[in-house]
Design brief:
The protein is α+β, with helices and mostly antiparallel strands. The protein is 36% helix and 19% strand. InterPro entries: BRCT_dom (IPR001357), BRCT_dom_sf (IPR036420), DisA/LigA_HHH (IPR041663), DNA_ligase (IPR001679), DNA_ligase_AS (IPR018239), DNA_ligase_CS (IPR033136), DNAligase_adenylation (IPR013839), DNAligase_N (IPR013840).
Length: 677
């Protein structure tokens, strides 16, 4: 009976029902979620607490009593032989320890429990049914009891075995796993969509869901989907009695399992594992939103059993949310080194991805139009690892009546020069060049950066101070700074000023690749600067090259050639180059002795995390020996260097039987070639 329950509690419960049911429908049925995962979790926990306090509020249609939502009728429906249940969540060490305490109390055992630990992939749960080793059926989770038959689509995914690799498989084997889209594949898919003027996917999970539910399996076949197996369902036959051993068995039968999987002795090991995976989360080649911990013993799992919607023997410890809702308060425009005018969202501060975020990038005018975002909107922002937060979508149902359009400036917000848009480019740029103090500041910061001229002590704030005080009007002006005006600056003592002057003097002896990179020519990064230097040997020959000659350089196409030639045609750039050389900036010739380049003609790929060298250092050493360092593995790749966390690139290298080195092997090779590390 609900008559004794306060009216406001009943109303709140119904409100939470409506919110969660709508979110389930958008997430599981339409594959177009509006509600961030963190907000969904908060609403679900609030409803669970209400129902715990007032059990009469529990109804058969409560979101706490079900998993997902009813499937669409576009696919045949499949009834799962064993329900595909959800997992309870933990959000703190204390909640994880409570989970362990409940396990040991129910088992009536004070001893520690062994747990299997697996990253919780952010994808789509799937059931694969095999009979006599052949794939018979693939189905989505659906509402946990009934899913959708997507067998034709799943058959197109290369990591799904159509026939198992051994004869000792059970007569009936249901494998459960996650179908997901790796980060690199997601980026390539969106880049292709952007080039075609099509709608972009919000995140890899959304892309995977949309790809799996295509009625035309030929479309699915073009999408970079992967399967990772994480458990079994219905089994007619014998399997090992430890969960981790079952996964190893599945791996032997042809299924990919997560290489980060581990077994720990107790709950402290679970917490340590959670910390370790959290530290490397941003470097993983796929998205994860938490860690799943399971009692490793299958007999103990059976003793522990289930509650209505989840097993008692497993839980998911969630990472801090990477997506959150907040309000767009205003939009400001920043000017970069190349004059690019970038809209920056000023947000109502919100905690996301472990930090409080109040600003996010909106990229450019096209992105604003694609999002359909207005000032005053409630938006979803995303922050993954160290990536700059970005607005990924708008919650249109929350749009206020006074929301207003974002107006892109026609004149630079810093110097008032006209803002121009080049046909074919999404980016609008200030036309002021170095008369624009914003561009001047960014150009000087880039010039002084560690991978450019490496001027120690010249930080961003000092650059801004020098420009604002009128002490620095150009890059070459750095080498004409003197002690008295530096000492006069706020928070600049004599020792700091002298250290800066010493660093400037030291930076005069550089290399041509670093100098070219420091100039900030559009589209000329470190690799292109190195290729230009090696090809032409000296600055004079490079300055004389036309676009046709420039395109003879490795990795230089028509666009880059145009920007390089244009840079050296500008009188003020030529004056600046002369001023820098007159100030004493110099370097040795880059003409290469090919006998000193034992890796010439070879393509190497770096993947995973390097622990002794940085990725840039390893790349630099390899390029010094003549190798080209690529971002993807192909049949033309000579060697792959794989560190911890290596994923799809390592798997592809193995498939192609390519040479693979770990970091220790790389360093041994470098030492053999005379490079001191």
């Amino acid at each position: 009976m609900t008559k004794n329950i306060p009216t406001e509690k009943q109303q709140r419960a119904q409100e939470l029902h409506d919110i969660l049911n709508r979110a389930n429908y958008q997430y599981y049925v339409l594959d177009s979620p509006e509600l961030p995962d963190a907000e969904f979790d908060r609403c679900m926990r609030e409803l669970q607490q209400l129902e715990a306090e007032f059990p009469a509020l529990i109804t058969p249609d409560s979101p706490t009593q079900r998993v997902g939502a009813a499937p669409l009728a576009a696919f045949d429906q499949i009834t799962h032989e064993m329900p595909m249940l959800s997992l309870d969540n933990a959000f703190s060490d204390e909640e994880l320890e409570d989970f362990d305490r409940r396990i040991r109390e129910r088992l009536n055992s004070p001893a520690s429990v062994e747990y299997a630990c697996e990253p919780k992939l952010d994808g789509i749960a799937i059931s694969l049914l095999y009979r006599d080793g052949l794939l018979q059926r693939a189905a989505t989770r659906g509402d946990g009891s009934v899913g959708e038959n997507i067998t034709q689509n799943v058959r197109t995914i290369h990591s799904v075995p159509l026939k198992l690799l051994a004869s000792d498989v059970p007569a009936v084997l249901e494998v459960r796993g996650e179908i997901y889209m790796p980060k690199a594949g997601f980026a390539a898919l969106n880049e292709k969509a952007r080039a075609a003027g099509e709608k972009l996917f919000v995140n890899p999970r959304n892309a995977a869901a949309g790809s799996l539910r295509q009625l035309d399996s030929r479309i699915t076949a073009q999408r970079p989907l992967e399967l990772c197996a994480y458990s079994v369902g219905l089994v007619e036959g014998d399997l090992p009695e430890r969960h981790s051993d079952i996964l190893e068995q599945l791996n032997r039968w042809g299924f990919r399992i997560n290489s980060e999987m581990a077994v720990v002795d107790d709950i402290k090991g679970c917490i340590d594992y959670f910390r370790q995976l959290g530290d490397k989360r941003a470097q993983l080649p796929y998205d994860i939103d938490g860690i799943v911990f399971k009692v490793n013993s299958i007999p103990l799992q059976k003793r522990l059993g289930f509650v209505a919607r989840a097993p008692r023997w497993a839980t998911a410890y969630k990472f801090p949310a990477q997506e959150e809702m907040t309000r767009l308060l205003d939009v400001e425009f920043q000017v970069g080194r190349t004059g690019a005018v970038t809209p920056v969202a000023r947000l109502e501060p919100v905690f996301v991805g472990g930090v409080t975020v109040s600003n996010a990038t909106l990229h450019n005018r096209d992105e604003i139009e694609r999002l359909g975002v207005k000032i005053g909107d409630t938006v979803i922002i995303r922050r993954a690892g160290d990536v700059i937060p970005q607005v990924v979508s708008v919650v249109e149902i929350k749009r206020p009546a006074d929301a207003r359009d974002i107006e892109f400036p026609t004149h630079c917000p810093v110097c008032d020069s006209p803002v121009e848009a080049t046909p074919g480019e999404a980016v609008a740029r200030c036309s002021g060049g170095l008369i624009c103090s914003a561009q001047r500041k960014q150009a000087i910061k880039h010039f002084a950066a560690r991978r450019a001229m490496d001027i120690d002590g010249l930080g961003d704030k000092l650059v801004e101070q020098l420009v604002d005080e009128g002490l620095l009007k150009s890059v070459s002006g750095l080498y004409h700074l003197s002690l008295p005006p530096l000492i006069a600056l706020e928070r600049m003592g004599e020792k700091s000023a002298q250290n800066l002057l010493d660093a400037l003097e030291h930076s005069k002896h550089t290399t041509l690749p670093k100098f070219l990179y420091a100039l900030g020519i559009r589209e000329v990064g470190e690799a292109t600067a190195r290729n230009l230097a090696r090809h032409f040997g000296d600055l004079e020959h490079l300055m004389e090259a036309d676009t046709e000659a420039l395109q003879q350089v490795d990795d230089v196409g028509p666009v880059v050639a145009h920007y390089v030639a244009e840079f050296f045609e500008q009188p003020h750039n030529l004056e600046e180059l002369a001023a820098l050389q007159q100030a004493g900036v110099h370097w040795e010739s880059e003409k290469q002795d090919t006998s000193a380049q034992p890796l010439a003609g070879q393509t190497w790929v770096l993947t995973g995390k390097l622990e002794t060298l940085s990725r840039n250092e390893a790349k630099d050493y390899l390029q010094r020996l003549g190798a080209k360092v690529a971002g993807s593995v192909s049949a033309n790749t000579h060697t792959v260097v794989a560190g911890p966390g290596a994923g799809s690139k390592l798997n592809k290298a193995r498939d192609l039987a390519l040479p693979i080195l770990d970091e220790e092997g790389l360093m041994a090779m470098l030492r053999e070639q005379g490079i001191e590390i």
